[in-house]
Amino acid sequence: MTRPADDAVDAAMARALELAAAAQGWGDTPIGAVVLGPAGTVLAEAANERERTGDPTAHAEVLALRAAARVHGDGWRLTGCTLVVTLEPCTMCAGASVLARVARVVYGADDPKAGAVGSLWDVVRDRRLNHRPQVTAGVRAEESATLLRAFFRARRGL
């Protein structure tokens, strides 16, 4: 199975950071996600839209996975694909990654309060599940963390 090159992953993370920054404009937590196909081409991208749409499941990862499934050509299976996201996925998003059969999850900043790719839980490496994506953590982590800290400081009036 092919895997996107590091430069494609870095470019996807740069785009995910742009999407994350844009989410602030409509009041959402700045998280962005990009799904790469097996050859490294962008299949889909999204930013958080929970506040914008009033949908508790409108996390960037879920939206990007849904959109990628529509164009990937294997139904709901995202075999060989890579999910690139600015923040460690939560339990819902980690579970969606497993269920979508993505080959790899790449994320920026750790989420010690809700992360489910190693920080608080480790859904994607749970041996009881029938699929376990590879994980690459810490890609442009400081940029993502800085964006999130600034958002929450402004939100709290600090």
Automatic annotation (TrEMBL):
<dbReference type="InterPro" id="IPR002125">
    <property type="entry name" value="CMP_dCMP_dom"/>
</dbReference>
<comment type="similarity">
    <text>Belongs to the cytidine and deoxycytidylate deaminase family.</text>
</comment>
<feature type="active site" description="Proton donor">
    <location>
        <position position="61"/>
    </location>
</feature>
<dbReference type="InterPro" id="IPR016193">
    <property type="entry name" value="Cytidine_deaminase-like"/>
</dbReference>
<keyword id="KW-0819">tRNA processing</keyword>
<comment type="function">
    <text>Catalyzes the deamination of adenosine to inosine at the wobble position 34 of tRNA(Arg2).</text>
</comment>
<comment type="subunit">
    <text>Homodimer.</text>
</comment>
<feature type="binding site">
    <location>
        <position position="59"/>
    </location>
    <ligand>
        <name>Zn(2+)</name>
    </ligand>
</feature>
<protein>
    <recommendedName>
        <fullName>tRNA-specific adenosine deaminase</fullName>
        <ecNumber>3.5.4.33</ecNumber>
    </recommendedName>
</protein>
<keyword id="KW-0862">Zinc</keyword>
<feature type="domain" description="CMP/dCMP-type deaminase">
    <location>
        <begin position="7"/>
        <end position="120"/>
    </location>
</feature>
<feature type="binding site">
    <location>
        <position position="93"/>
    </location>
    <ligand>
        <name>Zn(2+)</name>
    </ligand>
</feature>
<feature type="binding site">
    <location>
        <position position="90"/>
    </location>
    <ligand>
        <name>Zn(2+)</name>
    </ligand>
</feature>
<keyword id="KW-0479">Metal-binding</keyword>
<dbReference type="GO" id="GO:0002100">
    <property type="term" value="P:tRNA wobble adenosine to inosine editing"/>
</dbReference>
<dbReference type="GO" id="GO:0052717">
    <property type="term" value="F:tRNA-specific adenosine-34 deaminase activity"/>
</dbReference>
<dbReference type="GO" id="GO:0008270">
    <property type="term" value="F:zinc ion binding"/>
</dbReference>
<dbReference type="Pfam" id="PF00383">
    <property type="entry name" value="dCMP_cyt_deam_1"/>
</dbReference>
<keyword id="KW-0378">Hydrolase</keyword>
<dbReference type="InterPro" id="IPR028883">
    <property type="entry name" value="tRNA_aden_deaminase"/>
</dbReference>
